[in-house]
Amino acid sequence: MPERQSTFKRFVEVGRLVLLKSGPSAGNVAVIVEIIDHNRAIIDGPSVPRQAFPFHHLTLTPLVVPKLPRAAGTRIVAKRLEAEKTLEKWNESSWAKKLVTVAARRKTNDFDRFSVMLAKKQRRDTVRKSLAKAKASA
Q: 35 exposed, middle or buried (CB, 10 Å; 0-12, 13-18, 19+)?
């Protein structure tokens, strides 16, 4: 019987880049440094202190820091992240860009939303007028 290929690609492994869903560092990324048990792992990252963190408060990303040794220290993790340019890859991903835009939208106040509405109206009016002009000339 032929062996089937798994469609699942994001495994819990040492070196996996994770996004924190809760706690004071929520929204930041870290790296799994050591797996404690089937519920927790030790994570470490540039903006996250080294700590044990439960898996149900982490989101696995598709990025991995290759050949990261188990229980690597904070300096080694920082060097490997810099050498592999993992954080730059994360910042260029559509997932990270979407998180930034969501955060920016949450920071807007009523006046900012009103200004956006007016800009959209103005742009819509300009497009409508240019289309009408193009139809009239055709």
A: middle
Measured CA to CA, the distance from residue 57 to residue 122 in angstroms comes to 43
User: Cβ atoms within 10 A of the Cβ of 5, count?
Assistant: 6
Encoding tokens for residue 20?
């924190």
Please list the residues that pair with 59 across neighbouring strands. 19
State the Cα angle at 136 between 130 and 137, rounded to 5°: 90
- The model carries a pTM of 0.79
Q: Which residues pair with 51 in a beta bridge?
A: 43
The number of C-alpha atoms within 13 Å of 24 and in the hemisphere containing its C-beta is 4
pLDDT digits over 35-54, tens only? 999 999 999 999 999 999 99
